[in-house]
Amino acid sequence: MDVAAIENKEPEESTESHEIVRNKNMTRFKKRYMKRNWQTDTPTDENGESKQRKVCDKPVERIKRKKMALLLGYCGVDYYGMQRNPGVRTIEEDLLKALMEAKYITEDDFNNQQNAQFQRSSRTDKGVSAARQVVSLKLPLEVDVAEINKRLPDCIKVFGIKRVTNKFNSKSKCSARTYSYTLPTYVLEPSLVTEEERKQYRITEEKKEQVTKILSVYKGTKSYHNFTEKKHCQDPSALRFMMGFTLDRVFVDSDMEFAVLLVKGQSFMLHQIRKMVGLAIAVLRGHTDHSILDKAFSKEKVMIPTAPGLGLVLDTVHYDRYDAKFKDSHDSLTWSSEEEEIHKFKHEHIYPVIVKGEVEGHSMATWLEKLRQHSYEPSEDNQEKVDEKELVGDDDDDGDVDDDGDGDDDKNINKNGETAEVKADDGKIEEVNKEGKIDDSVNNKTDQ
């Protein structure tokens, strides 16, 4: 009897469990779902979210922003370079602050400039000036240049702003850069000793030819691992393409003659141009043999003197390929209409500072005293002191990786880790192999 009673209870439990499964409207999920539908009549999407727009308590003014190219010039003598660097005065800091005060960028953009897609065309070192620096960032369609300039110090000036393509990057789209280096001509003549002799000196045609011959050694694609900091001779990124290095002109100011050297290259590394000038001066003055020019480009380590940064100026940033590609849809980045204003700024804020630094500050004269004692052989005692703040961030102004996928990179690394250089004059690509030789076969390859 007891067994039969137990067997009769099992079907009752089974019936109760089946009844719970069949009544799905009594589950907790279904109750919450039905309650939500009962509480609101607003339409919802498949995720149960309301399709109605939420009303913000505080209305926010939405400003339409587009990618712009901004041309500016500056005297960098009292600055720690172009690139933003916490704790020191930089050009970018003052520029972004002026843009924020003019309400062209937000406070968030100021604190994190990548929000506005900010990029500079070239990272100038401590004390280096620029006549035509270009930065790209997102700005409102209507921008008043005067509103920016009145919030900037006199040594920084914005010349113009132009609309560019949405994926324009002032650094990676730059096909070449031209720098000028202004120095007193007496530096090229070692026989001059007194200050009066140096002021009275005027460069001869023979000396000009000597300068031109030495500067021509830099032309072409070479490994500049000895002309920067912390680069190994086999580092592919040390390969740089120089399109030209010439003595452009001479002028007299404050009874002293000055020469302007122009170097045009695809990209430059930290201290590269200053070391190129320093080595050329050392050879011209007879402090070292002419053969050191070949040695500097070999695998050997050579300690090259670094010329003062006072005379170095970013003169022009070239966008030849970009202009050719978008000539029908966007303005050219040659900035020809701003040329008069740029010329005036150079002669009011850049050249006077360089001349004063040489005539009154004796910048080159002081450096020449150190040059006499310079040793070109590497040793622990001969390690050149480098300000660590100058090594923060980018170490050069080489192009970033281009993210728009249009094949516009000015410099590419092939699958073997070798560097392909683009020659701006004729659009050809010269690929440099590990031995430093140019492989022209790359010109026969089709674009991917």
From TrEMBL:
Keywords of the record, alphabetical order, are:
Isomerase, mRNA processing, Nucleus, tRNA processing
Biased composition regions of type Basic and acidic residues, renumbered to the chain? 374-392, 410-448
Residue ranges of domain Pseudouridine synthase I TruA alpha/beta in the record:
218-320
Identify the catalytic residues.
Answer: D125 (nucleophile)
Annotated compartments: Nucleus
Functionally, this protein is described as follows: Pseudouridylate synthase that catalyzes pseudouridylation of tRNAs and mRNAs. Acts on positions 27/28 in the anticodon stem and also positions 34 and 36 in the anticodon of an intron containing tRNA. Also catalyzes pseudouridylation of mRNAs: mediates pseudouridylation of mRNAs with the consensus sequence 5'-UGUAG-3'. Acts as a regulator of pre-mRNA splicing by mediating pseudouridylation of pre-mRNAs at locations associated with alternatively spliced regions. Pseudouridylation of pre-mRNAs near splice sites directly regulates mRNA splicing and mRNA 3'-end processing.
Q: Which family does it belong to?
A: Belongs to the tRNA pseudouridine synthase TruA family.
Enumerate the NCBIfam families for this protein: hisT_truA
Q: What is this protein called?
A: Pseudouridylate synthase 1 homolog
From which organism does this entry originate?
Answer: Heliothis virescens (Tobacco budworm moth)
| Lineage, broadest ranks | Eukaryota, Metazoa, Ecdysozoa, Arthropoda, Hexapoda
